[in-house]
Amino acid sequence: MLILILGGTAEARRLAAMLAEREGLAVALSLAGRTAKPAPQAVPVRSGGFGGADGLARHLSDEAIDVLIDATHPYAAAISANAAQAARAAGVKLLALKRPPWTKVAGDDWIEVDSVEDAVAALGNAPRRVFVALGRNELEPFAEAPRHAYLIRSVDPVDPPLAVPHATYITARGPFAEAEDRALLQRHKIDTIVAKNSGGDATYGKIAAARALGLPVIMLKRPALPDVPSVATVEEVVAWLDHAMAPSTARGV
Ligand SMILES: NC(=O)c1ccc[n+]([C@@H]2O[C@H](COP(=O)([O-])OP(=O)(O)OC[C@H]3O[C@@H](n4cnc5c(N)ncnc54)[C@H](OP(=O)(O)O)[C@@H]3O)[C@@H](O)[C@H]2O)c1
Asked: What is the pLDDT of residue 225?
């Protein structure tokens, strides 16, 4: 069985490592090619866009892929829409692996917004000290609010830097622990956090730290994703594949 994983997440990497060990599977992983030094992977990797849904459908047919696993980030809405359309067009089975979002607990102070522009507007007029934990390609709207001081964390350097007078940059790859993030927020006297509701443990540290310090989080709402079969964990993907690979009699078909 030939499996293509659309990746760029820790889950995709872990899934690839688990499937690489299994008999009867040939697994490849696809990355968008955004990060300069992607983490090493246990299976062959291809990198770069396919050229829209049509390009992905062609790739699925040309490579005779049997199963497509969309394990991209929950905010990567374009590739997920393409995956749904391409799998349908190529007659390939599709399963999405999407982390459930975090939910608010007592002590959380979240302001939920639809876009980065709305997050900037929610910062208001008074100068704030803002920790920004978004992708480095999503920072442009903050240039419209140069009165705030920004602490920006991203995997790769922000180049060119944001056109604002007060910005500090940190390049780091998660996971980030709560204690580490709490110390970071305190050291930089942060009063507001802007984040995505990524779900999972790796980047929850800042959310827990904000709660502990009584700081508001301006949370970008998740984008709409296609309505396709979906699971929440790597283990569920493996169980789904086991079922899909079992002889039809064993599946009760
Ligand atoms: N958005 C986030 O917050 C976030 C956070 C962490 C990691 N990531 C990862 O970074 C990648 C890009 O995210 P994005 O928000 O730019 O996605 P996006 O807006 O949904 O995708 C934009 C385009 O990038 C290409 N692409 C995206 N993921 C790809 C993959 N795994 N393999 C091959 N091509 C891919 C596709 O180009 P074509 O149309 O030419 O095929 C897609 O149309 C994703 O793999 C995602 O898992 C994203």
From this structure: 96
Residue 252 above 70 pLDDT? no
Site residues for ligand 1, CB cut-off 6 Å:
6-9, 30-32, 34, 49-52, 55-56, 72-73, 75-79, 82, 135, 196
**Full-model pTM:** 0.94
Calculate the alpha carbon distances from 173 to 30, 101, 135, 153, 165 in Å: 19, 20, 12, 9, 25
How far is residue 8's CA from residue 141's CA, in Å, rounded to a whole number? 24
pLDDT tens digits for range 2-21: 999 999 999 999 999 999 99
Whole-angstrom distance, CA of residue 191 vs CA of residue 129: 5
Which residue, among 117, 124, 72, has the nearest Cα to 98 in the 3D structure?
72
| Axis-axis angle for helices 234-245, 10-20 (nearest 10) | 40
Judge whether 166 and 141 are in contact, CB under 8 Å. no
